[in-house]
Sequence to fold (509 residues):
Amino acid sequence: MTEHILPVGKGGASGAVNDFLKGLLSSGKVKAVLALQTTPNGRSAFPVLVSDPDKMRSDVFTPLMPVSTATILSRITKTRGSDDPIAAIMRNCELRALTELFKLKQADPANLVLIGVDCPGTFDLNTYSNFPGDKDISSAVLDPKEREKFLRSACRSCADPIPGRADIVIGTFGMDLEKGILVSGKTEAGQALLEGMGLDAFKDDGSREKAVSEVREAADRSREKHIAEHSDIKGSGKIADFFESCINCHNCMKACPICYCKECLFDSAVFNMEAHKYVSKAGSKGSFKTPTDTLLFHITRFNHMILSCVQCGLCEQACPANIPLMDIIIPIAQNAQKEFEYIPGRDLEDQLPMIFYKEEEFESVGDH
Amino acid sequence: MTEDFEPRVVGFLCNWCSYAGADLAGTSRIQYPPNIRVIRVMCSGSVDSMYVNRAILEGADAVLIGGCHLGDCHYLNGNYKARRRMVLLKNILTTLGMEPERIWVRWISASEGQRFADTVKEIVDETKKLGPNPMRARWDV
Fold:
């Protein structure tokens, strides 16, 4: 691992990272950069693929995640890996989701250089686009009061906001952002990119490490609080009530970086029946709500994706009915992943729990 | 819970072992409660959680997944995979507080007619204690 300092000038932290990415692109070491950039009128920000260094206008610290960059990279590399090096700037939940997609063979790691950034959290889409114009949104996300008010619940309970599996990590926690940002090369590919960029070595005084552990502890506390606050959503009746306003649009599934099936069973014609079968179905309970099978969709979706769930909360953000999905997804994911001793996105070598088995395990199931 | 509550049990039985075991119980004229509705599947490993969830949400009072004994699977390891899948399903239902005890997994071989009959009796007895599935009353799921 090599650690450097990226000097911060007039353009602030975001400008410094932009200059760094521009430098990468002009050096020819990467052919394209995928980084978050605000839209022309400033109401949103999306990952933008840039190949011309003069068009590099990234804002990687914009506190918004309209889509997971993992989903975008899957789309770009699924049929065939990249021939040329592409650098992608990602938050840790996106990196973890991408690792899961690599395992699921839905993305190709060839020639991808992954640059992780520390993430203080993101705001909901509508919060962001309606944010008062007189306030600076990038600093609002660092202000404890504003955070409490506006942060997405997934970000508030984030399992780890510091990038894990990345070639390069851009660190802001514990750094004096008026002076410099930490840039560390974590892998050989990352270190090779940083060579010759003329960056000073990082002098470690322990404040980075201290800040990182504080951030993690705060996230753990907030996570426990979140779980405790919503522990009463339990029982068949309460779960049915929880989803009562669901309009069955499947947006949660479409926004989810893990739900990758080309055609989801629930989007297929499997549940369509002839009229007389609907009438006889009504007969079994006396009546039924349409569209049908809403709760079935959610519970089955949990069964299919929860072990790889990185709890990015994009499902909740995508919900037009404002169902606070993270209230139940966080505990479900935590318990299920614990049962299978699996941490999604930690390591490419960790096998997906549903593709293997051991002869001696879970012995209470099946016999008595 | 009413005294005349008769649980409805949906059984997904694998073609090679549990289904044949149920068949043997029948041909041997072993008596067991008529509460189970059997669906033959080719392997317990082919039972997606969706089928089980569907049965529960439609109001089944219990669901049985029957497969070959471990090591005896006709497809070598389908029952091991079924076990993992059902552990996950039960784990999720536990977190949601949705009565995971209504889901039963049993390995029953083709020669175990008695074990099949005993299993059905046990499921029916236990489910009677548990009472009807509350989802039967929910028309809005």
Q: What stands out?
A: Helices of chain B lie at 18-27, 49-57, 78-96, 113-130. The first strand of chain B starts at residue 9 and ends at 14. Chain B has a mean pLDDT of 96. The radius of gyration of chain B is 15 Å.
